[in-house]
């Protein structure tokens, strides 16, 4: 589970936003600004998971993005 992985890596619970998407770029921008996010960590979920909207929002807000690859997906390429 992604939240457990974040906690195990030392990320504090108040620094984790775990919501069921996908969401529009506009909502992602609002979340980034509301919480003062300066780095977005996301899985590469493709169009169905709202990945491109997250990238668009991060670019608009000028923040870093860390993309976690799915090893099963990478192996299939």
Structural overview:
There is one protein chain. The protein is α+β, with helices and mostly antiparallel strands. It has one domain (22-76). It has 4 helices and 2 strands; from the N terminus they run H-H-E-H-E-H. It has helices at 2-8, 25-35, 51-61, 71-76; strands at 39-43, 64-68. Helix 2 (25-35) crosses helix 3 (51-61). The protein is globular. The relative contact order is 0.17. Keywords: Cobalamin biosynthesis, Oxidoreductase. GO terms for molecular function: precorrin-6A reductase activity. One of its GO terms (biological process) is cobalamin biosynthetic process.
Structural class: alpha+beta
The overall number of domains is 1
How are the strands of the biggest sheet laid out side by side? 1-2
Helix content: 40-55%
Strand content: 5-15%
Mind telling me the C-alpha Rg? Answer: 13 Å
**How do the SSEs run, as a string of H and E?**
HHEHEH
First CA to last CA: what distance?
24 Å
Number of strands: 2
pLDDT average, as an integer? 89
Number of helices: 4
What is the global morphology? Answer: globular
- Quaternary structure type: single chain
How many strands, what sense, and barrel or not for the largest sheet?
2 strands, parallel
| pLDDT < 50 stretches | none
Question: Secondary-structure blueprint of this entry?
Answer:
Elements: H1 2-8, H2 25-35, E1 39-43, H3 51-61, E2 64-68, H4 71-76
Parallel strand pairs: 1-2
């Amino acid at each position: 589970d992604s939240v457990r992985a974040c906690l195990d890596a030392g990320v504090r619970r108040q620094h984790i936003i775990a919501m069921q998407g996908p969401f529009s770029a506009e909502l992602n921008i609002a979340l980034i600004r509301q919480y003062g996010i300066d780095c977005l960590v996301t899985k590469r979920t493709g169009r169905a998971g709202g990945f491109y909207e997250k990238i668009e929002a991060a670019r608009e807000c000028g923040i870093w993005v860390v993309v976690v690859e799915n090893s099963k997906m990478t192996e299939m390429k």
